[in-house]
Amino acid sequence: IDECVTGNHTCDKNARCNNTIGSYHCTCNPGFSGDGRNCTDIDECVTGNHTCDKNARCNNTIGSYHCTCNPGFSGDGRNCTDIDECVTGNHACDKNARCRNNIGSHHCTCKSGFYGNGASCDDIDECRDASHKCSPHAICYNTLGSFVCSCKDGFRGNGAYCRDIDECRDASHKCSLHATCYNTLGSFRCSCKVGFHGDGKTCHSNVAKLEHGKCCI
């Protein structure tokens, strides 16, 4: 009698029945352990007897197991490769931050001229916090992520360095022809010459002709 065919055996539902002459033999299926009449599931994830990638999770199932790649990795679970979120664009970095890939994840760092945690970056106002490199004789203008220096009136240079313009020497002053020009830091001063009076930019002679031809001072 083939007990395996007739079903007249006591093998576990998770075992194979093997007919023998005058009897039968029970063997637990792969993924189970026992004497064939009593078979229990083997947790391969606990025993370590699985082929999941080191960057995958092992999930035990009845009689087997399933491998799933960890977040930040892609593959079938048995072979998992790192996902470069900085290349795929699947990251949460701010538009003013740099994305740096690392194994299984990524890191965000605000660019120069910005501050924050990388996921959120705000502009640094270098003009307000005095972290700029402008000359004391320049005006600082904040820009997104940076700043611009512009020499003040009466000075020339690149903004980081500004030197005084000698308006008296280069004749860019507005003094009267009858005045003396004195250079000052960032400007100039006009003084009417002897025999003239005025604000220096306009000078009038101290000698005025009268209608009768006489002169007075």
TrEMBL record:
It comes from the Eukaryota. It holds the Pfam family EGF_3. Transmembrane segments: none annotated. Gene3D superfamilies: Laminin. Residues 1-40, 41-81, 82-122, 123-163, 164-204 form the EGF-like domain. Keywords: Disulfide bond, EGF-like domain, Repeat, Signal. This is EGF-like domain-containing protein. Belongs to the EGF domain peptide family. PANTHER family: PA14 DOMAIN-CONTAINING PROTEIN, UROMODULIN-LIKE. GO terms for molecular function: calcium ion binding.
